[in-house]
């Protein structure tokens, strides 16, 4: 059996494999070529032949015809020689292909030409198609871009360079110059190292420029003297803004989310654990579908307990809850107590109070202003009050002396005439005194209904009020004195009290800082006027707006929102300050990263170290490259299918025979391996690799070794099904052996003719005996 | 002509042949019989190494079969005719082509091989069936083709592996008649594995009775079947009655 592959049959196999590989390669190439041609023609139909057009102007589909007419008019007037062609329409935009005359194939024309069409109705941008061209992408720094523009312009074979959408576009003189010039530009890019340091939003540096200088010095110190070009910018834009907004939203929601504080936990809780909250005093219920209970998730452990957020249901601000284990969908054993604290609910209540308070503010200010004005008037009447009180005081003293005289007359036998005269005088004085009292009372009334905000005035007012109250009805007392002249001692004592009180009132009034009080009242009136001038309607409106804009979210919705934001932010670096540094020469990426991490270890920045930008071929080149990949992938798929077919149709009978012969083993890698396995794998690898190589097929991300192994895998798969595809009648084989047929004749006369029709079978016809 | 000594063979650790020895002279006929699984067919197939013996010696004429390399073994097999129990004809070939194949293997020209094959088929009574494929023939006819294929190379030694076991009882007689005829024609050394005791008694020069891979009776048919030493021999002897 071992002679099976040692003699004539080995030649048969090699011949068949060679023929199959050639035929399969031709077929794979033909199919791939047909696909290539089809796609190539399609591309040419879409964007023209190579070099035919240089720019593409895009206009709205519905205005395409009118826009094209206007564009043609502009071109006719300003750019004779420029060709316009209406191209395909994609996503509602029609492409207008522009072919520039040789004189306009320069940076200025490329950049200025589209500007002429910005006023054309429906114009919506442009693209560059000029070829041959490459673009250097991934350059964020203007300074770096300028440097690259200068250096690329000096490369041999480069026609001109220009900036295109933040990239450096390099246009070559002709296609033959592309490879050489691209290689030179690639070397230029590789001669620099880009260190990109991004600080997280939580780790902003105080002085970005100083940090830049610090990094530049560190680079020179660590890697030796070299050119350093830096550019820093504050924050990132685009997606960075969204990420930041989400982070802020999360902070807001987290701050206002109802916080559950769990105390007296009966066992340690783990962060992320879910627990059931039940209002204290309620019965334990199933959690799902029951409004009374809700579920919370522990988010942190604190000294005084655990903090949790509600994930299902809603809790009441300030509410007290019992905490239970969550078992399935029900509450389990008691874990402790919890209190709910909703900042959002408190904010809503505060806003409601503020809105209500603001409504009465204007009225209160008006009333206070009116009172202040009255007080101000009172101070203006201060002199009149003093004069009235002084007169009252004099009258009291006169009455007091007349009463004394009357009393002495009665005692020492004075004439009744003299006594009556004295009493009449006293009566007149009392009347005068009473009118003076009325004046003081009026002032006192004014003060009592006026402002009692000032302590000094209130003291005076109280004194006067007390004085007035004591005098009321005393006129009647005097009349009684005059008529009976009895108890003159009591009247004198009373008048003495009045005199004392009047004196006290006068002292109090003299003690007032009238000027100071006036100034303070003026200030108060001014402040109250200012309050009235405030646009309280606007404030009210804004407070209402804030109140209405407060999230109408249930606690579980807040919790869910936070988790959603977390899941988005999980893979995001929230952008912050950023330093980009271009350094001449190559720098080991790992060493540079370590250096940056050490230098800014407090800020935990994200650092990338790479070459300067990357070269992207032009649109057509990219399309052709993609088509090339499609072509080679199609060829690879065809090769794969053909390999499987070759193995199944040509070699499955051989594999079947080898599998039926248990003794047919060989030593491979120190292990005893069945010949059928070795044969299948080896043949699959050889056939597949050969077809791939000859048809220039390739599979993205798979190198030659992987292709070889893939072929071996196909062979092994074929081995698994070989006996079903081409079963071998072992009785016939034994007959061949018994009659003395050598193995190659057994294969030629018995095994292969009985197998599936294939190339091996076809080639065998001439070799078979019959 | 044929000497087998101390032949051993195991399949999967189980001893199928356990020291089998026998010898057959030139032109003699040896019948090997015994119960199913006694190692008859294995012993027969070891002679031309369709089954590789584990140990022992096999001498066919001047050839020490166990010492031959693969190429030599191929040549040696051409000198040994082999008739299979299930005919083992090649289905895609006609009776004539099946019969001619051993000659082709020996390098005989196609025309000559076919002519000699036709003679061989005529000898076994199939001159009218030469163009038929095996699927077009009866079991007896197929076995005749198998016998013709074994004879066409004029081998020195003929090995018969239960040639009637797969045939209808009606056809067994025809094949036994053909075998008797061939024995009578003489000149060929034959080793036959069969359960046909009467046939053995009639044609054999000696009989080998195997049981569990061992020779339990050996000698002339009369000795083995009428005066056996073992119970198995006596049991086979009773089959004659």
Could you walk me through the main structural features you see in this protein, from its secondary elements to its overall organization?
The complex is a heterodimer of chains A (770) and B (241). Chain A has 770 residues and is an alpha+beta fold. Chain A is built from 23 helices and 20 strands. Chain A has a 6-stranded antiparallel beta barrel with strand order 10-13-12-11-14-15. Chain A has a 4-stranded antiparallel sheet with strand order 2-3-1-4, with helices on one face. Chain A has a 4-stranded antiparallel sheet with strand order 6-7-5-18. In chain A, helix 9 (382-412) runs antiparallel to helix 10 (416-449), helix 9 runs antiparallel to helix 13 (488-511) and helix 18 (619-660) packs antiparallel against helix 19. Chain A is elongated and about 185 Å long. The two termini of chain A are 23 Å apart. The relative contact order of chain A is 0.12. In chain B, the strands form 2 sheets. Chain B has a 6-stranded mixed sheet with strand order 6-7-8-3-9-10, with helices on both faces. In chain B, strands 2-1-4-5 form a 4-stranded antiparallel sheet, covered by helices on one side. Chain B has helices spanning 40-47, 70-77, 95-105, 110-123, 139-151, 169-185, 197-203, 221-226, 231-238, and strands at 2-11, 14-24, 29-33, 55-60, 63-64, 80-83, 157-161, 189-193, 206-211, 214-219. Chains A and B meet through helix 21 and helix 22 of A and helix 2 and helix 3 of B.
Main pleated-sheet profile of chain A: 6 strands, antiparallel, barrel
Name the shape of chain B in a single word: globular
Q: Write down the overall mean pLDDT of chain A.
A: 78
User: What is the subunit arrangement here?
Assistant: heterodimer
Largest sheet of chain B, in brief, is: 6 strands, mixed
For the secondary structure, the number of strands of chain A is 20
| Average of per-residue pLDDT values of chain B | 92
Number of E strands of chain B: 10
Q: Provide the gyration radius of chain B in Å.
A: 18 Å
In helices, the fraction of residues of chain B equals: 25-40%
Poorly predicted runs of 5 or more residues of chain B: none
């Amino acid at each position: 059996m071992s002679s099976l592959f040692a003699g004539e049959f080995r030649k048969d196999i090699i011949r068949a494999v060679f023929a199959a590989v050639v035929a399969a390669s031709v077929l794979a190439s033909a199919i791939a070529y047909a696909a290539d041609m089809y796609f190539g023609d399609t591309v040419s139909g879409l964007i023209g032949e190579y070099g035919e057009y240089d720019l593409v102007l895009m206009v709205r589909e519905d205005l395409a015809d009118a826009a094209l007419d206007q564009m043609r008019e502009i071109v006719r007037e300003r750019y004779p020689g420029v060709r316009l062609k209406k191209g395909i329409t994609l996503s509602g935009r029609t492409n207008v292909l522009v072919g520039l005359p040789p004189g306009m194939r320069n940076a200025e024309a490329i950049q200025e030409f589209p500007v002429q069409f910005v006023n054309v109705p429906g114009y919506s941008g442009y693209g560059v198609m000029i070829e041959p061209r490459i673009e250097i992408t991934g350059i964020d720094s203007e300074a770096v871009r300028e440097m690259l523009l200068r250096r690329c312009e000096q490369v041999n074979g480069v026609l001109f360079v220009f900036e295109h959408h933040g990239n450096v576009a390099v246009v070559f003189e002709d296609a033959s110059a592309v490879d050489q010039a691209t290689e030179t530009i690639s070397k230029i890019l590789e001669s620099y190292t880009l260190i990109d340091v991004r600080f997280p939003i939580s780790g902003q540096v105080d002085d970005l420029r100083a940090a830049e200088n610090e990094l530049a010095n560190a680079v020179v110190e660590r890697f030796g003297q070299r050119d350093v070009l830096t550019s820093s910018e504050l924050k990132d834009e685009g997606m960075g803004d969204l990420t930041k907004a989400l982070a802020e939203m999360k902070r807001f929601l987290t701050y206002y989310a109802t916080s559950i504080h769990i105390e007296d936990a009966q066992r340690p809780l783990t962060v992320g654990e879910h627990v059931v909250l039940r209002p204290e005093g309620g019965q334990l219920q199933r959690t799902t579908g029951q409004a009374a209970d809700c579920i919370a998730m522990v988010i942190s452990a604190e000294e005084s307990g655990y903090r949790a957020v509600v994930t299902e249901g809603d809790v009441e601000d300030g509410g007290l809850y019992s905490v239970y284990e969550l078992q399935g969908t029900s509450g389990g054993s008691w874990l402790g107590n919890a209190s709910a604290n909703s900042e959002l609910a408190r904010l809503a209540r505060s806003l409601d109070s503020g809105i209500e308070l603001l409504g009465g503010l204007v009225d209160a200010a008006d009333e206070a202003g009116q009172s202040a004005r009255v007080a101000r008037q009172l101070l203006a009447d201060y002199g009149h009050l003093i004069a009235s009180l002084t007169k009252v005081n004099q009258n009291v003293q006169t009455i007091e002396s007349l009463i004394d005289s009357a009393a002495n007359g009665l005692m020492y036998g004075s004439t009744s005439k003299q006594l009556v005269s004295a009493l009449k005088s006293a009566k007149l004085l009392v009347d005068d005194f009473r009118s003076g009292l009325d004046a003081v009372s009026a002032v006192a009334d004014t003060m009592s209904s006026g402002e009692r905000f000032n302590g000094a005035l209130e003291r005076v007012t109280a004194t006067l009020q007390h004085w007035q109250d004591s005098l009321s009805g005393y006129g009647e007392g005097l009349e009684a004195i005059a008529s009976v002249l009895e108890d003159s001692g009591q009247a004198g004592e009373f008048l003495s009290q009045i005199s004392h009180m009047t004196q006290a009132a006068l002292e109090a009034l003299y003690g007032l800082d009238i000027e100071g009080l006036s100034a303070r009242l003026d200030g108060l009136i001014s402040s109250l006027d200012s309050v009235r001038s405030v646009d309280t309607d606007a404030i009210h409106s804004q407070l209402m707006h804030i109140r209405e804009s407060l999230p109408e979210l249930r606690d579980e919705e807040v919790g869910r929102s936070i988790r959603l934001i977390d899941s988005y932010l999980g893979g995001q670096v929230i952008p912050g300050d950023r330093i980009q540094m271009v350094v001449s020469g190559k720098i080991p990426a790992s060493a540079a990263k370590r250096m940056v991490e050490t230098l800014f270890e407090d800020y935990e920045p994200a650092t990338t170290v790479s070459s300067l930008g990357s070269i992207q071929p032009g649109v057509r080149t990219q399309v052709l490259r993609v088509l090339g990949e499609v072509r080679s992938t199609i060829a690879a798929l065809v090769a794969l299918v053909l390999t499987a077919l070759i193995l199944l149709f040509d070699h499955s009978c051989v594999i079947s025979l080898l599998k039926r012969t248990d003794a047919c083993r060989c030593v491979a890698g120190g292990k005893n391996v069945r010949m059928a396995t070795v044969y299948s794998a080896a043949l699959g690898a050889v056939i597949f690799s050969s077809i791939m190589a000859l048809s220039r097929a390739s599979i993205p991300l798979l190198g030659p070794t992987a292709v070889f192994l893939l072929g071996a895998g196909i062979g092994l798969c074929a081995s698994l099904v070989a006996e079903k595809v081409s079963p071998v009648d072992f009785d016939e084989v034994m007959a061949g052996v018994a009659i003395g047929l050598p193995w190659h004749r057994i294969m030629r006369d018995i095994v292969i003719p009985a197998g599936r029709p294939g190339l091996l079978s076809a080639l065998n016809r001439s070799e078979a005996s019959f | 002509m044929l000497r087998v000594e101390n032949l051993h063979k195991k399949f999967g650790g189980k001893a199928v042949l356990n020291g089998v020895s026998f010898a057959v002279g030139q032109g003699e006929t040896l019948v090997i019989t015994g119960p199913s699984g006694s190692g008859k067919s294995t012993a027969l197939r070891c002679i031309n190494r369709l089954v590789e013996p584990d140990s022992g010696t096999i001498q066919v004429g001047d050839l020490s079969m166990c010492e031959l390399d693969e190429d030599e073994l191929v040549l040696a097999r051409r000198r040994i005719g082999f008739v299979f129990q299930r005919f083992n004809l090649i289905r895609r070939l006609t009776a004539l082509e099946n019969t001619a194949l051993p000659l082709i293997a020996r390098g005989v020209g196609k025309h000559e091989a076919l002519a000699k094959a036709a003679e061989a088929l005529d000898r076994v009574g199939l001159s009218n069936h030469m163009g038929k494929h095996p699927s077009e023939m009866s079991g007896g006819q197929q076995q005749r083709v198998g016998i013709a294929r074994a004879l066409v190379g004029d081998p020195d030694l003929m090995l018969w592996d239960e040639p009637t076991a797969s045939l209808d009882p009606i056809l067994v007689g025809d094949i036994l008649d053909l075998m008797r005829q061939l024995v009578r024609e003489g000149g060929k050394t034959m080793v036959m594995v069969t359960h046909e005791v009467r046939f053995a008694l009639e044609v054999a020069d000696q009989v080998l009775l195997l049981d569990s891979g061992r020779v339990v009776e050996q000698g002339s048919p009369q000795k083995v079947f009428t005066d056996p030493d073992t119970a198995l021999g006596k049991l086979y002897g009773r089959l004659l009655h």
